[in-house]
Amino acid sequence: MAAFTIIGAPVVRAEGPDKVAGRSIYAADVNLPGQLWGMILRSPHPHARIRHIDTSKARKVPGVKAVVTGQDIPGRFVGKSFRDMPVLCWDVVRFVGDRVAAVAAQTTEAAEEALGLINVEYEDLPAVFDPLEAMQPNAPRIHEDVASYDGVPKQRLALDVHNGLTRLAWRKGNPEQGFGEADLVLEHTFRIPARHQGYIEPHAGTVAIDPDGRIQVWMSAKNPFGIRTQLAKAVAVPEERIRVNVVNVGGEFGGKGDAVDLPAAYFLAQQSGRPVKIVMNYTEELMASSPAHPTVITIRSGVKRDGRIVARYLRAVHASGAYGALKPNATLATWHYSGGPYRVENASIEFLQVYTNTVPGGYFRSPGSVQTFFALESHTDIIARELGMDPAEFRLKNLLSEGEEDAVGHRLRCVRFREVLQAALSAAGRQKRKLGTGRGIALYGRHIGGDDTGVVLSAEPDGSFTLISPTFDQGAGTHTILQQLVAEEMGVPIQEVRVVVGDTDVAPRDSGARASRVTYVASRAAVKACRQLREQLMAQAARMLECSTEEVDFRGGQFRFREDPRQQINLKKIVAQAGRPLTVTVIEDAPYPEDISYICAQVAEVEVDPETGKVRLSRFVTAHDVGTIINPITHQGQIDGGVVMGVGQGMMEEMVMDGGRVTNASLGDYKLPTAADIPELKTVLVSSGGGVAAYEGKAIGEFANNSPPAAIANAVADAVGVRLFELPITAEKIYHGLKEKRR
Fold this sequence. Notes:
Layout: H1 16-21, E1 36-42, E2 48-54, H2 56-59, E3 64-69, E4 77-78, E5 85-86, E6 92-93, E7 99-105, H3 108-117, E8 119-124, H4 131-134, E9 164-172, H5 175-181, E10 184-192, E11 204-209, E12 215-219, H6 224-235, E13 242-245, H7 262-272, E14 276-279, H8 282-288, E15 295-303, E16 309-321, E17 347-355, H9 369-386, H10 391-398, H11 417-428, E18 437-446, E19 451-459, E20 465-469, H12 478-490, E21 497-501, H13 518-545, E22 552-555, E23 558-561, E24 564-570, H14 571-578, E25 582-590, E26 598-608, E27 615-626, H15 632-651, E28 657-658, E29 661-662, E30 680-687, H16 708-720, H17 731-742
Parallel strand pairs: 1-14, 12-13, 16-17, 20-21, 27-30
Antiparallel strand pairs: 1-7, 2-6, 2-8, 3-7, 4-5, 9-17, 10-15, 11-12, 11-14, 15-16, 18-26, 19-20, 19-25, 22-23, 23-24, 26-27, 28-29
């Protein structure tokens, strides 16, 4: 075993000094010789036919080098895997913000002037904005032939639904019989608005075309290989002609996995013969990027008087927006958590994606989870109170145990649901009750993702190690974790390990930072690489020490003959003697651990003014099932950041839309939480085995952010008896609820 104990140490972030000193390069920092500024002309209409486009005046603006419209490149679509979103629209626009034309100029001022001079004649078409209304037979049809699009997920299409896109559905047991046997049946409907991921760095990308036709890309995105695939299909070139270069990502929270304006930048670069950079402003971010879906969820549960859940029906209708392109397979990965942490004997669960004339929805840190668990955990509290049971007692009675099946048929192991909830309750202690105070609890459980990744590990001539990883660090501290793993496995100080992000020409393929999978898959790949490289080093050392590999010890960068430790040789000499680079490449295709669901339990305490409805979150407890914690600083950072994000989604965040137009399209109007909005935070860690990452580590990235809205809503109901069925939880809504209650 290594002589150093790096695992579990609070190691500072590997990239921290460069970021703090301003040396880190982000996508908007890329500046190439002859580079032009690109800008996009966007539709002012939610649904309209394009009758004519005149670009003649725009082309005459001094400094303008390229103008491209959708009518120049008809039939070009972009998307993660399902391609229904035009690179630039040529016949119909489907939301306010849809791309119609693009210009490239020597200055942003010239580009902006040219945009204003492009004349587009539109013919308005009927539009629909609410997903339930979009499903009605008389609603305007947004896409005529969904099944004709490239990459269509045929097995998931919801063609039986008007404006339907995709359906995910599960059925367990006999729900009809279960409802018939229930003593009490309750049904509730919840609404959750669109929300933006709130990263400070906007989408940015640069495209340059080399003289030999090679396409160079710099992009603010978490998945370089996915971006390469999307761009290749959008512009009809082989992936091998595209190189996605390395830049830092300034936060993404699920929202930066799409090529967005990159294909338009390519066509501008192709026409102008010069590199083109496009950087979204924040108005564009909020009106045309990839927010979380507005969702309507209906839950009906049948329960026995003793509190057992015997039947459940859940239907979530997501407003996909104008396109499904920003989601893999045009769906949200709801299999991760749709079963919930409760024992349900009979269930019917359905998630629908429905086209609407609104901003296309994408991924947001554990996509669909806030919607699902706000509804599920609010509904759970209502059932408990209807039965006259304490909400915690009701949950403890129904939580799954080891080896039981969840509501979608996953048989679970390493279950720690009860322990985590009890730990949260214990940490919260007894609340000092007074007028207008309340406490709410909520749970969140999910599986994590798997899939492929790879690393290249090299022993350097100076005795250090270099790990090339394909994983862009979008803020989670991934490179620090990998650095620690290599240092621990190779028995060297952490300063002797360097983690380098490889571009798509250098690094093995990786499917991106998503589904709380990164530490799981990347740690396994890194540890495998270390052990394979160590075998090479040990074999070389044995030859030099004239003994067998079984007689060699390796500690602190030194190889020793076990029977005579005075005979030793250091790593630097081993590499020099080998006369060649000592390098291993490992490809890890990690399975999806569908039999494991990690859990988070949270307790919120609020103070509500019974006259005005003003609500203050006074205390928040979050408890987590954890394995070996590789770095306690980054681990706690993920928890704290998640709670803050969840509080924002619960109490203030909402993309307000009027006629399909986002009306609060700036960070000044779209309110994100600040330090003044955050109460006392308390974290409880329940340690146990069973983690699938290296050293039995467990995921933490997408847990603390999902159940705060439900916990806060439950606390408000406990405080003043007002049950809110729609987010965010605001003083105005509580005030109206109080007025209604007094009536």
